[in-house]
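Repro:
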Amino acid sequence: MSDSYAGELTNRQLDHASELFLREKAIAGRQALDRALLTLSTGALALSLVFIDHFNGSPKWTELLYASWLAFVVAILSVIFSSGMTVTVLGQLSAMWGASDRNDSNTIIRTAKHADRVIRVALTAFTVAVVSFIIFVVVNRLLLCHTSHC
């Protein structure tokens, strides 16, 4: 009877370790997404600021340009906030190795869900920024071509 108890305890520990390992892998993937989204957002914002001078005269629909800049900033800030939450979850997971308290696990799950919501905001803001900027460029490029016969 003592052997089966020891085997059951080992299986529980393995299940717990496997769960933590999978969560850490998910967080590592999330950190890669955060880095990629942060790089794309800051790069697109910088490029749009640099190349805005290429629109001669007074560009049309500048509200779209300003909206895209604002959305890029929201995406950048959301990624930074989400990344901080992800680091918090990773720290909580590291502290849980060997612990079996489910309350800690529930706290980690809640924090991870909040981080998921924040990254969705970042993805949405990035998409809005890109679409707004593309529309701005296309409209102004077409107007430029229409007036100068390019």
